[in-house]
Specification:
The protein has 287 residues and is α+β, with helices and mostly antiparallel strands. It is built from eight helices and 15 strands. A hairpin with a 2-residue loop joins β8 and β9. The structure holds 4'-deoxy-4'-aminopyridoxal-5'-phosphate.
């Protein structure tokens, strides 16, 4: 079944959707994106994603072509038209398609941004079999640019990292800079020792995950200790548990780091509990 996607004000079948070859998203990765998950046909933490989108845009001197209310309507319309029960909505805004390729930004009044949204159905997102066994990660050097707090579409190195992990027989990679873990290729990274959860503090070095913010709130409400600081891969290997968070994986256990099993090699109690709470609360608050 062909999807209906959204491109610059129109809902069109996916094979009819078109973006210019001059689009700066295509030529220069000059664009930002968001991924919002869908549970029970509703959007999880739309407000958080919309707020981060506004911030990413303003950091790059761009403006959304539509209001937040309109964005919410477009998200809902796409979910309905494509009958998505569990899955995600992908949104991308680029600096548009000026007639000539030029490093300088085009005049924002003359060249309107490109807005594209599409859905991906992922049945079994909440009741994921992988979450029952956990994932394996490897560590790799973090050689991305210095503004990882902006959610740009420059995803080549994270893609390469994912491929390095696959080649090593693992599922994902945690990136390390100056000896400290920054984050996963497309997720935030956490370790757990006893009842204490440690995850890197916010800054330009990592993306402020929307799932991260919710999970840290739920952890505090459940009387778990939370420490926001950098940690090394050696500290992670010695931890009782580890996990990642993102909009599409929620809370996902990590059971092995660079071949070293954590604890007994199975998802731990803190991680399992946090996944349960996150999914339950997200379902309740979804719009
Ligand atoms: N860090 C990076 C580098 C990511 O790409 C993502 C997900 N896109 C995250 C963290 C998690 O963010 P969120 O919880 O908002 O999906």
């Amino acid at each position: 079944m062909s999807r209906i996607v959204y491109v610059n004000g129109e809902y069109v079948p996916e094979h009819e959707a078109k973006v210019s070859v001059f689009d700066r998203g295509f030529l220069m990765a000059d664009g930002v994106y968001e991924v919002t998950s869908v549970l029970d046909g509703k959007l999880v933490d739309f407000a958080g994603h919309a707020a981060r989108l506004d911030r990413s845009l303003s950091e790059l001197g761009m403006e959304s072509p539509v209001s937040t209310d309109e964005l919410l309507s477009i998200h809902r319309e796409l979910v309905a038209r494509n009958a998505v029960e569990e899955g995600m909505v992908y949104l991308q805004i680029t600096r548009g398609a000026p007639p000539e390729r030029d490093f300088a930004f085009p005049d924002p009044v003359a060249i309107r941004p490109t807005l594209v949204l599409f859905t991906q159905a992922k049945p079994g997102l909440a009741d994921s079999p992988v979450a029952k066994t956990g994932i394996k990660v490897i560590s790799i050097e973090d050689i991305r640019w210095g503004r990882r707090d902006i959610k740009t579409v420059q995803l080549l190195y994270p893609s390469m990292g994912k491929m390095m992990a696959k080649k090593a027989g693992a599922d994902d990679a945690w990136m390390v800079e100056d000896g400290m873990v920054t984050e996963g290729t497309s997720n935030n990274a956490y370790i757990v020792t006893g009842n204490r959860i440690v995850t890197r503090h916010l800054g330009n070095e990592i993306l402020a995950g929307i799932t991260r913010a919710a999970v840290l709130r739920f952890a505090a409400e459940a009387q778990m200790e939370v420490e926001e600081r950098a940690f090394t891969i050696d500290e992670a290997k010695a931890a009782d548990e580890a996990f990642i968070t993102s909009a599409t994986t929620f809370v996902m256990p990590v059971v092995q780091i660079d071949g070293v099993p954590l604890g007994d090699g199975a998802p731990g109690p803190v991680t399992r509990r946090l996944r349960e709470i996150y999914i339950e609360e997200s379902r309740k608050a979804a719009v």
